[in-house]
Design brief:
The complex is a heterodimer of chains A (193) and B (420). Chain A is an all-alpha fold. Chain A has helices spanning 3-24, 30-62, 70-95, 98-117, 135-145, 150-163, 168-183, 189-192. Chain A is elongated. With 420 residues, chain B is mainly alpha-helical. Chain B folds into four domains: 1-70, no CATH class; 74-187, no CATH class; 219-292, no CATH class; 298-415, no CATH class. Chain B contains 16 helices and nine strands. The chains are: A mainly alpha (193), B mainly alpha (420). Chains A and B meet through helix 1, helix 2, helix 3, helix 4 and helix 5 of A and helix 8, helix 9, helix 14 and helix 16 of B.
């Protein structure tokens, strides 16, 4: 199971736990309540572990291996963006972990794109992700490419914005389009400055 | 409407009293336990207001305090006790329930919780329980007149206007199966792609929907319902994580010994911890109730439809207004709610010469949201800015014109299905 899927599972576990725990809040059975709290602690520790593991994976991708060719390195970095986009979506959509978890992942994705841009032909390699089946991945890729290929990216982001509802992919697509409309900037613009 | 009045002047009451009472509209004044039996026979019974005057207190130099107990008319805006076809309600929350065709008083613990939440004090309910039993008994005997009299004798004051949502949230908690029968095993519904009763999105469905409940009929309404549930769940989740993190640090190493030696200090710590979770449960129920009735118009969310602007936020919250507006604006946004600025205050907007404070601190820009939803909306501003400048979206938006910021503020609320 992928980490983002595990995060979804943990999120469901937390839902179930809350349903059961909230039922006990008026009880006087402190022992049962204590045990239920322990279960909650285990869930939150599992969430912390998955998040740390996800961030560690992306961080590790940034450490270049000497034996890698440029193409292998670029492919590895592109997989990092794909993974990071899904992880950021899961953290946002499942746990509302925006200020900490999602932001850390986004900053790491920024670092990946900078590294990718240093490999010829540059970040344009991310265009392969514009056809990715996951709208969250398409939205992230579009954010880094809108200034390079606006004719291709804008319709893709508009479709993501329209098809996705109240989730990270939707907000990402909208924000990228807004920033492009107002300032003609992509998510890469600040990285290259 | 009741037409019969008891003439105050006949009782020799002071002129101030007559003047005061004369300002109360739609009232029938009932002195002591006066009941106009003929009123109960009129076709206007449903809108009768029974009042029990329980005394007139006039201080030598202070304002007159005239306490009037009455039934209100039921409805969306009602804050008082009222009779409906479902029995007696306070605001919109029922105090009786039907079981096998008969009215019964809700459980003592439920009434205690509801009223304590409503009035924010520990209510002594012994008297109320017997009174409520009288109301139920009269209703079961089809004596609606007697039921109304008994209801007036409960002497329930109107709810503070901010208390009604809290009371309803408490009611939702109580009515949920889990609260009602904590000791009974509860079916945990699982979503499955192959289960027609509880259909779920298949694993790997984009948008993080895999394994979650899917609308049975796939309609837009059903989808919106599913999204609302997801939003209300998400609004709670980060707070749960934060609360559990605190618990991990404070309790996790202690609780395993609970079976062996449940010392008093540990049990007390657990009890305190539960209080915090209980507050969270109330807030979650309030958010869920709010979301279920969403989306709202902007006017619904604004503190007032009358435009007022202020020189700063303190002036909005504490400013001097005429008495009618004072009632709405003074103090906090209400129990379980917070004020939210569509165009954000603070940050660069605080000193932005193009955006005067009066443009931020006005009744058009400030709305009221349940606390958890307010936090959820605010969190969306904490994401990194779309230009990777290192700013948050909050900071980046504040570099944009007022109109852009306002449109964004409205958009987030629309996207979260809060605003139409």
């Amino acid at each position: 199971m992928e980490i983002e899927e595990s995060i979804v599972e943990v999120s469901k576990e937390l839902d179930t736990w809350w349903d059961e725990f909230s039922a006990m809040l008026d009880s006087e059975d402190r022992v049962a309540q204590g045990k239920m709290l322990l279960r909650g602690f285990e869930i939150v520790k599992e969430f912390d572990r998955l998040k740390a593991e996800g961030i560690a994976i992306i961080t590790a991708l940034l450490s270049r291996s000497d034996s890698e060719s440029d193409d292998e390195r670029a492919a590895s970095l592109i997989r990092g963006i794909e993974f990071g986009a899904k992880l950021a979506d899961a953290l946002h959509d499942e746990f509302r972990d925006i200020a900490d978890g999602m932001t850390k992942v986004v900053r790491l994705m920024d670092a990946i794109v900078k590294a990718l841009n240093a490999i010829s032909p540059g970040r344009v390699r991310l265009a392969v992700l514009l056809d990715h089946p996951d709208p969250g991945v398409r939205a992230v890729a579009g954010g880094y490419l809108i200034d390079l290929m606006p004719e291709r990216v804008i319709p893709i982001l508009r479709r993501v914005e329209d098809s996705e509802d109240a989730n990270n992919a939707h907000f990402n697509a909208y924000n990228t389009l807004l920033c492009w409309k107002l300032e003609r900037k992509s998510r890469f613009s600040g990285l290259s400055a | 409407m009741v037409e019969k009045h008891v003439a105050l002047e006949n009782d020799g009451w002071p002129p101030e009293a007559a003047e005061f009472v004369g300002n109360v509209s739609h009232c029938m004044f009932v002195k002591h336990h006066f009941v106009a039996e003929n009123h109960c026979q009129t076709s206007h019974l449903a809108v009768c207001h029974y009042l029990v005057d329980i005394g007139l207190k006039i201080r030598d130099s202070g304002p007159m305090i005239h306490q009037i107990w009455r039934l209100s008319e039921p409805g969306e805006d009602n804050l008082g006790p009222a009779m409906t076809s479902d029995g007696l309600v306070l605001g919109r929350t029922p105090l009786l329930e039907r079981r096998e065709g008969s009215f019964v008083v809700r459980e003592r613990q439920e009434i205690q919780r509801l009223l304590s939440r409503a009035y924010r004090i520990n209510v002594t309910i012994d008297r109320l329980m017997s009174g409520l039993a009288s109301v139920a008994s009269a209703l079961n005997a089809n004596d609606s007149c007697l039921a109304r009299i008994a209801a007036v004798h409960l002497r329930l004051p109107d709810l503070p206007d901010t208390a009604a949502p809290s009371m309803e949230a408490e009611d939702i908690l109580i009515k949920s199966a889990v609260w009602k029968s904590a000791s009974q095993p509860r079916e945990i519904l699982k979503a499955s792609p192959d289960d027609p009763k509880h259909p779920g999105w298949p694993a790997g469905t984009p948008g993080g929907r895999g394994g979650k409940f899917r609308p049975k009929d796939g309609s837009a309404d059903a989808l919106a319902e599913e999204i609302k549930n997801r939003i209300s769940r998400r609004s709670l989740k980060m707070n749960l994580i934060a609360a559990l993190h605190i618990g991990v640090e404070a309790l996790a190493n202690l609780i395993p010994g609970l079976d062996v030696a449940a010392d008093v200090a540990l049990l007390a710590t657990i009890a305190r911890t539960l209080t915090e979770y209980r507050e969270l449960a109330i807030e979650a129920a309030a958010a869920l109730a709010f979301v279920q009735n969403a989306p709202y118009s902007l006017e619904d969310l604004q503190a007032s439809s009358d435009y007022k602007e202020f020189s700063n936020y303190d002036a909005f919250v504490k400013g001097r207004l005429d008495s009618e507006l004072l009632f709405k604006y003074f103090g906090s946004a209400g129990d379980g709610s917070e004020y939210h600025h569509l165009v954000t205050q603070g940050g660069a907007n605080e000193d932005n010469p193009d955006i005067p404070q009066s443009q931020l601190q006005n009744t058009d820009n400030i709305i009221i949201l349940p606390t958890l939803l307010h936090e959820m909306v605010s969190d969306e501003y904490l994401r990194p800015a779309p230009d990777s400048s290192g700013m948050t979206l909050y900071d980046w938006l504040q570099t944009q014109p007022y109109e852009v910021q306002r449109e964004y503020g409205l958009k987030i609320l629309r996207d979260l299905h809060i605003l139409k």
